[in-house]
Specification:
With 358 residues, this protein is an alpha/beta fold. The chain is built from 13 helices and eleven strands. It has one domain (9-357): Metal-dependent hydrolases (TIM Barrel). Strands 1, 2, 3, 4, 5 and 8 form a six-stranded parallel sheet that branches. It has a three-stranded parallel sheet with strand order 9-10-11. A two-stranded antiparallel ribbon has the order 6-7. Helix 1 packs across helix 2, helix 1 crosses helix 4 and helix 2 crosses helix 4. The protein is globular and about 50 Å long. The two termini are 35 Å apart. The structure holds zinc ion.
Length: 358
């Protein structure tokens, strides 16, 4: 089956805002809208590949990895067992960067002339997908910018924030992120703090999605125990296939199934490969292998994609958002019917977001 427009894909995670923030300059919105042949996601790449929308992450880098190429790649210093996590960030530093990245997205929308919209509801997203408008959902990866009274959370929600990960892979006031380690169990540290448990309650109150992707296993179960929303890991893979600390065990996948939640398969080669190596020469088929394992353990209504574009090294056969049709072809080759492909590419994400934001 072929058509002029590629199969629309809604995606659980990208770091385009981080790339544009690091790039600097008042023309950052134009760089995204017109494209400048850099990075893995901009509007021309999105349109070419059928990237219809996704969660746009705001991530505040630790000082020592600001210069790093990809943020979801293991920092060199963090590969040895027992190596320390990046140090915590202070509130003011985190807030300054969060406002700056949020403003980049706002300015992209303003300059987009209807080609991108910040979506606050699933109705918004569906309208965008139907009309070839890029659907951007504001997400924060690591809650360092959130104050202990949760005032910032209220304001950010009003500004469009619909998804938040309590931690990135470092400690903060809310919990302990999972370090980048392979091979390693995800059960590798303490879970949420008391304030982190309050954060779960406040996200539930505002119907903000709680992203489990960078939590260690204890943190995952801490959220599972008290959240009233479906469990969602926006960009994580199967630990059974790649024994990385960032990946999810079959028990975690089963918990996602039980709450009718969602897991987005991550394209980062180090979370795809059995050896966890940073090697661009990784077959695209591995993405489908992880999806297939998750279909078995999380269920066919609870799996989608979470590319990590602009945050990680992805298989060279995929390259960037323009390469997404390669993934769709790989699913067809695997014998997936069009209804299942549509679920994995978009329908599952929209259904679970609708339940979360209800
Ligand atoms: Zn991430």
């Amino acid at each position: 089956m072929s058509s002029s427009r590629p199969v629309p894909i809604f995606d659980g995670h990208n770091d385009a805002l981080l790339r544009l923030w690091k790039r600097k300059g008042p023309d950052a919105p134009r760089a995204f809208l017109d494209g400048e042949g850099k990075g893995q996601l901009d509007l021309p790449m999105a349109r070419q590949g059928g990237f219809a929308g996704g969660l746009f992450a705001i991530f505040v880098p630790s000082p020592r990895n600001t210069a790093g190429r990809g943020k979801d790649e293991p920092p060199v210093l963090d590969t040895a067992p027992g190596a320390p996590l990046p140090p915590p960030l202070d509130l003011a530093t985190a807030q300054t960067a969060v406002w700056s990245m949020a403003s980049i997205l706002v300015r992209i929308e303003r300059e987009a002339e209807g080609r991108l919209r910040i979506c606050r509801t699933v109705k918004d997203i569906r309208h965008c997908v139907d009309h070839n408008v890029l659907a951007a959902v504001l997400h924060i990866e690591g809650a360092e910018a959130i104050d202990p009274e949760f005032e910032t959370l209220d304001v950010l929600h009003q500004a469009g924030l619909r998804s938040l990960g309590p931690v990135w892979s470092r400690p903060n006031a809310f919990g302990h992120g999972v370090p980048f380690r392979c091979p390693s169990s995800p059960d590798i540290g303490p879970g949420l703090t008391d304030l982190g448990k309050e954060l779960v309650h406040n996200c539930n109150r505002l119907k903000i999605l709680i992203d489990l992707s960078h939590l260690n296993e204890k943190g995952f179960w801490d959220v599972a125990e008290r959240s009233d929303a479906p469990l969602v890991a926006t960009h994580s893979n199967a630990h059974a296939l790649s024994p990385h600390s960032r990946n999810l065990t079959d028990r975690q996948l089963a918990a996602i199934r039980e709450t009718d939640g969602m897991v987005g398969v991550n394209f980062a080669v180090s979370f795809l490969r059995e050896d966890g190596r940073q090697d661009r020469d990784t077959p695209v088929e591995l993405v489908i292998d992880h999806a297939e394992h998750m279909l078995k353990h999380a269920g066919e209504d609870n799996v989608g994609f979470g590319s990590d574009f602009d945050g990680a090294m992805v298989p060279k056969g995929l390259g960037n958002a323009a390469g997404l049709p390669v993934l769709v072809e790989a699913m067809r080759k695997r014998g997936y019917g069009e209804p299942l492909i549509e679920k994995l590419c978009c329908r599952n994400w929209l259904r679970v977001l609708e339940k979360t934001w209800r």
